[in-house]
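Lecture 7, part 2: worked example. A protein chain together with KG4.
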Amino acid sequence: MSKKKIFILAIESSCDDTGAAILQNDIVLSNVIANQKVHAIYGGVVPELASRAHQQNIVPVVQQAIEQAGITKNDLDAIAFTQGPGLMGSLLVGASFAKSLSIALDIPLINVNHMQAHVLAHFIRDKDQSIPNFPFLCLTISGGHTQILKVSGSNKFEILGETIDDAVGEAFDKTAKLLGLPYPGGPLIDKYALKGNKYAFQFTEPKTPNELDFSFSGLKTAILYFLQREQKKNNNFIEENLNDICASIQLTIVNILIKKLKLAVKITGIKDVAIAGGVSANSEIRKTLKECEETMGWKIYIPKFEYTTDNAAMIGIVGYFKFLDNDFNDKNLLASSRLKINE
Ligand code: KG4
Ligand code: ZN
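Predicted complex, written out as structure tokens:
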């Protein structure tokens, strides 16, 4: 590689956040995100509204990322964008914008897998996070995905277990909705749980045919029936017990995640464990993983908060690795809503 400083513009638009970042090699110079507020009143992401909001946000978000990085668009060496998985209409906005700009500037275009990006966010060079060594296990927990991966290289991912129905973030958001909380409910469950007794109520943990897989739809139904039963006895049950209900639901979910993770460590013998995705912001999971570090001799890697939820910096780090490998998007791959982690 003759040029030492590589500037990459990265664009993320897979769901309801429009993100743009500038990386100089593996260092983030700017990481701008525009959250879409329009979905809150609907209790979930409305794809058509998300796509429209991306169209409105993308130009100012990219401009801001370039300005904050202190460069001009002519300094860019490549443009990386999220190819998938995600919502088709949302992906197409980021992909088409990235493609057009790469043609206009005559620089390479790099397609990035969003799930790989969540994992490789750990490789962003930042004084606030340490970089794992290969091989390591990664628990990817987000609103769309729940996976335990064995990561053996920057493009070597093996799925050891994954959800057979809802993702863990969905489990948080859907149960929050049952409690009358707005979308996204995960952070709110976390907030109320801090003041509650996590042993107040018990919920059965769902079973799966493959022990490393997850299932959360049964848990949601169990919580629904529990709430209906209790509300028949006391109309104000939710209001009077919100903190305890949130703490108990959160503990059940975290127990499910940790049990599977412990099994994966036992099967693989790998004790380096990373977490990724929006749900890794959860305080109970962070606390429990820290305990595993002390009691089980694990080495835990938790990314900096801004690199856990959907962001463009994580797209940029994959873009940088692919740039070094001369792995460009010359096959004209734009959006693929169901892209698997190994694709
Ligand atoms: O990775 P992410 O930003 O977007 C997806 O790719 O899905 O994850 C968003 C998910 C939402 O379901 C949100 O409720 C959940 O992460 N989440 C949390 C917390 N913060 C975000 N869930 C539980 N506790 C939190 N503190
Ligand atoms: Zn994500």
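The pocket of zinc ion (ligand 2) is lined by residues 114, 118, 142, 277, 310 (CB under 6 Å). The two ends are 26 Å apart (CA to CA). Keep this in mind for problem set question 3.
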